[in-house]
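This week, look over our next protein:
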Amino acid sequence: MKVSIAVGSCDLADNDLKQLSQLGVDCVDLKHGNALPGVKEQGYPDLDGLLRLKRRIRSYGMEINRVTLPDLSKDFMSGQPGSEAELENAVQAMRVFGEAGLTLARQRLSGDVFPYMSQCYMAQHRGGAGARGEALVCSPAEFPPAAEQMEEWWERFILAFGRLVPVAEEYNMNLAVHPSDTPHFHTPFAGPGLHRVIDAFPSRNVGYVYCVGTRGEAGGTPLVLDEIHEYGRKNRIFLVHLRNVRGSLATAGAFEESLLDDGHMNLPKILLALHKVGYNGCINPDHITNLQMDRVYRQGGHEGLEWVAWSYSIGYVKALLASLAEFCGERW
């Protein structure tokens, strides 16, 4: 397993790339498809611009691991006239990624979350560290989405993937979705709905950016271990987002993200489970906690990533991976 870090911009400063390299990051994940070179101008990435970015990241000893397709908006997911151009752009983007020799793309789809079902707040953890929290404000029975509405949503999903999957197969790229975050009841990519993706598209090139934190929000370590066994043994986990949480919607009606060593989930056990099912992709410690020195730097006008929190997270993950290799008798 390797370590990847998600970045929101393709205009990466040399200092940020140097810092990532110095911390031992192996790969970069480009998480915003609309930020890739060429997308604003023509609706899909420019191959030459993408290759330049790939070479620049490689010059710092890293690779691009995951890219993101242009978003499919609410207009497309509700079948509004003229929205088909969005899908054409996503298909063309997949071809560009394939021509660039990239291997993993994520598709974002509007409407896979129901934000009205919980209230966000800033949790205060040890030493005043700030973290995202969410608490249910209604029971699932109070605001159930209409069954007909959700079936229409799935019809649009199947239409989109029906166009994207053949291109992924042509270039031997992996096409992934991320679990619905927040994983409220009836959200499309949560629980049985998450499995519906590979039921509808049994291609080996279709799977998941499996988010330990998001699924932990739904049911903690037991649920995560169960899903790793289910999807991992089928080789459908293409990337792992690793973060820890306190509580879950199922057990407490709320959850709070936390530092990796300060939540309720057993991360060493989760990484061991990934190893047992043969996962050898990237581990991405996402949704970092708001730490004091990063606040001070921002207040002082310093630009760049939140390096105190990222350094902690990267170091913790690398230590977990080294311990896992030693435990399993493998070379690190």
DSSP finds twelve helices and twelve strands in the chain. The first strand starts at residue 2 and ends at 7.
